Amino acid sequence: MQNPFESGQIKNYILFYASVVVIMVLFFIASTLFLDQERIEQKKFDYEKHDQIAEKKEEVNIEKKAHQKKKFKLLKSAY
């Protein structure tokens, strides 16, 4: 086996590794340039409407309980 430092082949190894690095950099640049990234809008929740709806539901529940009639009527005296 020959020593690549003495035979002058080290230049080929360096060129090979440099070309691999250049290709990797070019692919990275191409992927960042041509990749379209969509911006996602941040969702905002309207808490005021939620609170108003909850209050209305509570009022409806209270009204329903007030208007409910009992299905069974208890007798005044036991037999």
Descriptive notes:
The protein is mainly α. The chain is 63% helix and 0% strand. It contains 3 helices and no strands. It has helices spanning 4-7, 10-34, 47-67. The protein is rod-shaped, with a radius of gyration of 40 Å. 0% of the residues are buried.
In short:
The protein has 79 residues and is an all-alpha fold. 63% of the residues lie in helices and 0% in strands. The longest helix is centred in the first third of the chain and has 25 residues, at 10-34.
Query: How many β-strand stretches?
Result: 0
- Give the helices and strands as they follow along the chain: HHH
pLDDT averaged over residues:
78
- The rough form would be described as rod-shaped
Q: pLDDT below 50 for ≥5 consecutive residues: which ranges?
A: none
Structural class: mainly alpha
Question: Radius of gyration, Cα only, in angstroms?
Answer: 40 Å
Query: Major β-sheet, in short?
Result: none
Strand content: under 5%
What's the end-to-end separation, in Å? 117 Å
- Oligomeric grouping of the chains: single chain
Question: Helix proportion of residues, in percent?
Answer: 55-70%
